[in-house]
């Protein structure tokens, strides 16, 4: 488990609804039970500052770490996917981005990584496709990722059904653009790990589980689920193979999170503090946006 990745999950799930800032000492105490020592956490936070996910604000001899504007955007976009209650519907139109100008090798690699991050599959070196992405948001994200000079060399467009290729079906396009076999196996493994825990919760509730343990389990649950979603193009159900395990994993995560929520929130309310010693208030508008309307909670 990478400490930097786990800290990103912590900010996205626990710190963002509490103002998006935390005293470094409080973050260390939250993650210490996972055997992440202080030095490792400090090093990881420094990397996140360097990568412009976080920024530091000194308060006397202490420091708060805050989400940057771009970091908050990335977290909010990820939250829309992590806490969605179901797979997206499809309007039967493909979103396509064509490379119509010459790109330097570094620019091409950066573009490919940025589009893969947003779920696009590659149909050759110069064509990227997705069935549901918002092209305006995609281009805005490319600008935020420092790829504004590349935009004049891209042609975003819509294509109906399988007209991207003269004789290809939608299933053919999916098979060409994405390898779903490894992702399917990973979802199956996730279910195998967490389903027995959920079964116990259904029978016994959280008997014998402390608030701190509930938080740690919730954190690991969302962390593992988030890592899967980073690899998941989130195709509409009509384009997925039969018996796709992703939706079962989503429902499992949703129910388990709901059962852990109250106890884990009590722990966070007690433990999360700022450098001046105050406790941050929960941002109810943000919490409702990602936790009451369309997410993991019902």
Would you kindly provide a written description of the structure presented here, covering whatever features stand out?
This protein has 298 residues and is of the alpha+beta class. Among the domains are: 93-160, Alpha-Beta Plaits, CATH 3.30.70.240; 180-271, no CATH class. Helix content is 53%, strand content 12%. The chain contains eleven helices and seven strands. The strands form two sheets. It has a four-stranded antiparallel beta sheet, with helices on both faces. A hairpin with a 4-residue loop joins β5 (121-122) and β6. α8 packs antiparallel against α9. It is globular. 29% of the residues are buried.
Keywords:
7 strands, globular, Phenylacetic acid degradation operon negative regulatory protein PaaX, PaaX-like_N, 298 residues, Alpha-Beta Plaits, PaaX_C, WH-like_DNA-bd_sf, 3-stranded antiparallel β-sheet, 4-stranded antiparallel β-sheet, 12% strand, alpha+beta
Characterize the biggest β-sheet.
Answer: 4 strands, antiparallel
**Helical proportion, percent range:** 40-55%
Give the termini distance in whole angstroms: 30 Å
Mean pLDDT: 87
Number of strands: 7
User: How many H/I helical runs?
Assistant: 11
Strand/helix succession: HEHHEEHEHEEHEHHHHH
Structural class label: alpha+beta
Cα gyration radius (Å) = 21 Å
User: What is the topology, as strand order, of the major beta sheet?
Assistant: 5-6-4-7
Percent in strands: 5-15%
Low-confidence stretches: 288-298
Global outline: globular
Pfam family, one: PaaX_M
Protein name: Phenylacetic acid degradation operon negative regulatory protein PaaX
Organism: Comamonas faecalis
């Amino acid at each position: 488990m990478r400490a930097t990745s786990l800290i990103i999950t912590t900010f996205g799930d626990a710190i963002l609804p509490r103002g998006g800032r935390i005293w470094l000492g409080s973050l260390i105490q939250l993650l210490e039970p996972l055997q992440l020592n202080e030095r490792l956490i400090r090093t990881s936070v420094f990397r996140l500052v360097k990568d412009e996910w976080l920024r530091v604000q000194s308060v006397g001899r202490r420091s708060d770490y805050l989400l940057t504007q771009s970091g908050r955007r990335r977290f909010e976009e990820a939250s829309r996917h992590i806490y969605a209650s179901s797979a997206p519907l499809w309007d039967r139109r493909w979103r396509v981005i064509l490379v119509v100008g010459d790109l330097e090798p570094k620019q091409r690699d950066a573009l490919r990584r940025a589009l893969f991050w947003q779920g696009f599959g590659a149909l050759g070196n110069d064509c990227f496709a997705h069935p549901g992405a918002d092209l305006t948001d995609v281009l805005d994200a490319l600008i935020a990722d420092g790829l504004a000079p590349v935009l004049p060399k891209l042609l975003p467009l819509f294509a109906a059904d399988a007209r991207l290729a003269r004789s290809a079906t939608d299933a053919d396009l999916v098979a060409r653009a994405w390898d779903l076999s490894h992702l399917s196996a990973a979802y199956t493994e996730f279910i195998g790990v967490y389903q027995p825990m959920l079964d116990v919760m259904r029978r016994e509730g959280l008997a014998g589980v402390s608030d701190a343990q509930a938080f740690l389990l919730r954190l690991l649950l969302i962390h593992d689920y988030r890592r899967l979603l980073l690899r998941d193009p989130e195709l509409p159900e009509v384009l997925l193979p039969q018996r796709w395990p992703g939706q079962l994993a989503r429902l499992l995560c949703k129910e388990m999170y709901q059962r852990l929520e109250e106890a884990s929130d009590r722990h966070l309310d007690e433990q999360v503090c700022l450098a001046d010693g105050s406790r941050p208030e929960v941002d109810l508008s943000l919490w409702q946006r990602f936790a009451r309307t369309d997410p993991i909670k019902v």
